[in-house]
Write a structure and sequence with these properties.
Blueprint (H helix, E strand, L loop, with lengths): L31 H4 L17 H14 L20 H7 L2 H4 L11 H18 L3 E3 L5 H18 L7 E5 L5 H8 L3 E5 L9 H7 L4 E6 L12 H10 L3 E6 L11 H4 L3 E4 L19 E3 L11 E5 L2 E5 L16 H37 L15 E4 L1 H4 L5 H10 L6 E2 L8 E4 L7 H20 L1 H5 L12 H6 L8
Parallel strand pairs: 2-3, 2-4, 4-5, 5-6
Antiparallel strand pairs: 1-7, 6-7, 8-9, 10-12, 11-12
Helix pairs in contact: 3-11, 5-11, 6-7, 11-14
Amino acid sequence: MANQDFPLIFERSKEGRTGYSLPDLEVPEIDLDSELDDAYIRKNAPELPEVSELEVMRHYTGLSNRNYGVDSGFYPLGSCTMKYNPKINEDVARLDGFSHIHPYQDPETIQGALEMMYDLQSALKEITGMHEISLQSAAGAQGEWTALMMIRKFHEANGDYQRTKVIVPDSAHGTNPASAAVAGFDAVTVKSNEDGLVDLQDLKRVVGEDTAALMLTNPNTLGLFEKDILEMADIVHKAGGKLYYDGANLNAIMGYARPADMGFDAVHLNLHKTFTGPHGGGGPGSGPVGVTKELEPFLPKPVLIKRDGQYMFDHDRPQSIGRIKPYYGNFAINLRAYTYIRTMGAEGLKKVSEYAVLNANYMMRKLEKAYDLPYNQHCKHEFVLSGKKQKKLGVRTLDIAKRLLDFGYHPPTIYFPLNVEEGMMVEPTETESKETLDGFIDTMLTIAKEVEDNPEIVQEAPHNTVVKRMDETTAARNPILRYTK
């Protein structure tokens, strides 16, 4: 709305131009004065731009061409798994029998949709080794919180009210300690050792009678497999705590290892990452939660079950943590994941892990001489480089990321995890070709050479993007919301 500080200006509006005509009214016209309170009736015509349809189309098409996504180019964001979303998933999600149903329908009228959800739960149980799965959670972070709430209720059911602490590695995703806090726990950090793995001695130091759970992803955020996971599970379990698996990195081990077999008691999965549901821009996501038989009574309700050949929702769950989301989860994202799993099959999902790990190790070894490699060992699906070598020459990791934009690449995740100085976290995923990987490798090597020979060109990048280097603090607090340069 226009006001004195921010006047409403339509830069392309010209009086008399029309881009769209509303259809004739197909319902009886009502007398607004008699039907609505005076406070809800507009006194003046709305302030809208007057533009032609052609101008509208060119404006929004131009904006879309400036956007970057997985269908536009390589998107190596470490820990975010921005990989190709197969279009068959979209076709299935748009089938009338799925897209035109409503969650308030009688379950008898949506048996096909419920069967799909039940089969997806069964597939995820097989992949993770968990006893039961709930599809209700809308995202990974909500899945974390849901699992912790179940763990909390489990302890309380056993009278263990003193278990107030959740252990989180120093390399963990930022959502882990945040989810612990929202679930009512205090987060305690466990340190990494010189190999980038959880320090077992420090774990023994922080574990105690007040431990509710250990939150962990395996492989960890550095892309390294926690080889001592069974010993870690034993330490936590002997203290009476539970193990929670952050499923963000499951795409590195599918078909080779299962969280349940590592000793985990609860897990969340990112269907919008590992199982090719589109994500970014705020959603939608899907973060199903799997649990062992011991935690099964505390699942969110209702729980989808099959009884006498019929699929139905069980609301009679006295120990449940309750409903965590309206309806039954992000159905369309779950459907896309189901399509992906059925398309790939067991062997296909195993190949996903093989190629994700192969691609990451190939890139890491090609770049290790040009950039610092803080943990020189085989990685899984992602790896972390450091720009310490370039920083000594006056070029920061941020500068390298900005320079990548000039070559048409989205930068990798930078300055994360926090325990790597000048970190660059690269995840190629399994969907990229060798030619794409080689192109990115060559570009990174070119930038490393520029840092040595002409650092100014990197320090002042980007040079050929629509928007040049910004004052990011000012841009966040006082954005200029105009379509023009």
